[in-house]
């Protein structure tokens, strides 16, 4: 008891002392053991201040923005998100929403559900970005809530790092009448409007006072654009009619017509030609008219005018509904930002290989709103030769070339693509002479060996797959920023010393699908594999189910597919 009384008095005495650290003298117990007491505390007059976190502002919650947020370690930054929609939508299934194969709510996940699972706090505001002030690192926003709630709708946010992931808007090519008379298929709301309009066309067609000519016009569905979205919508609409609507509107079943207008020579021209041919044959069997080599010149509320490129002939087609799916263009707010940073003459916002916007320091752009300007190897060919020629002999040996091969392949991915196109197994094969012998080359020979590599440079397609990979890559860079500042992981800088901080972005193509209706699909798979038919459709089901952003949406989508097989599609006009 004496020991504990002593311990208590000593503890009080030491806690009242202003010193930084105190140590109680070791006391020997009767049992031979030792007891030590130590206490440490900071002086209240000298608080330790933490450095404020860098502010990361993300504009957009599409594929690129959501992918970035999902993988970002938000505990390292002050993360803020602005988007006009408070949800992420699985856009590859929008054509399925237009015909009731999948319900709209089954393919959307609230943004707040996504960010609440992240490590650290993420602040979200449902608003649109109206202007980016690059000089002052500030973004101006406005709420889109259109009711009588009180409060100022406009606000401004400052940033240290800005991530632009705003996507793009539909490109009408300034064709007269498109905005007023066509449906687009870019957002969930677009798909819902199309679904209601399709049902309205059928309901109007069965009104007894209409003539057969008026019924035919109301039931003529025109799709402008033969890309993946247009083709998939045409296939979905055909299935909707053949499997469901034909039994609900039997009196007009022979009056329905679906047409696809494509300016190119083939539909799905971005796919392998075997898939393009298969799709055209499938549509021909299904009775879907495909007009290739035709350009739309105007659209009215009753007809669409198009010009046949081969003959110059102009013809008109009556329509009941038009879906315009011909490409994308830059949003006005991004275009204004481009003017500020010296990119006003470009069509689309341009970034470097690290997704940093050219002409800025801490602004990044990912997804459909930007394109990567891959540096040409011929611009740096002299610096590469000089770096490899260590003995300054004026020629390169195979051994010297091998020392820089890895950095070349990372910094200039077009070289690897060029090697594959020439069926060369190794970069050093470029230095072989006509007899196949490895020899030393001078600067001119080195230029000649790599002169055609830049011809393999291509812009990445504006797809969900590209956007998702860019978002995941950029979040990795943000997570590793401090680590890579001390130990850069990127390739060698040939025009200066050191290495780049990060590895450049490298897109990995995982394949692409084209559902063609009738439980058939076509797919391009890695390794130049092409698959077509019913088995490919089931592969499509499995891949798209696995790619959902949550188990909730995964369950809902699979449930909708099951419901369609059991009960058919819902034809109510809501």
From TrEMBL:
Q: Which cofactor does it need?
A: FAD
GO-annotated molecular function: calcium ion binding; NADH dehydrogenase (quinone) (non-electrogenic) activity
The way this protein sits in the membrane is described as:
Peripheral membrane protein
Q: Which Enzyme Commission number(s) are listed?
A: 1.6.5.9
Compartments (UniProt record):
Mitochondrion inner membrane; Peroxisome
**Superkingdom as given in the UniProt entry:** Eukaryota
Return the Pfam families for the record.
NDH2_C (PF22366), Pyr_redox_2 (PF07992)
Instruction: Give UniProt keywords alphabetically.
Output: Calcium, FAD, Flavoprotein, Membrane, Metal-binding, Mitochondrion, Mitochondrion inner membrane, NAD, NADP, Oxidoreductase, Peroxisome, Transit peptide
* The EF-hand domain, residue ranges: 376-411
Sorted alphabetically, the Gene Ontology cellular component annotations on this record are: mitochondrial inner membrane; peroxisome
What is the first-listed, main subcellular location in coarse terms? mitochondrion
Quote the catalytic activity from the record. a ubiquinone + NADH + H(+) = a ubiquinol + NAD(+); a quinone + NADH + H(+) = a quinol + NAD(+)
The record's similarity note reads: Belongs to the NADH dehydrogenase family.
Q: What is this protein called?
A: NADH:ubiquinone reductase (non-electrogenic)
What organism does the record attribute this protein to?
Cucurbita moschata
Organism ancestry:
Eukaryota, Viridiplantae, Streptophyta, Embryophyta, Tracheophyta
Q: Which gene encodes it?
A: LOC111455345
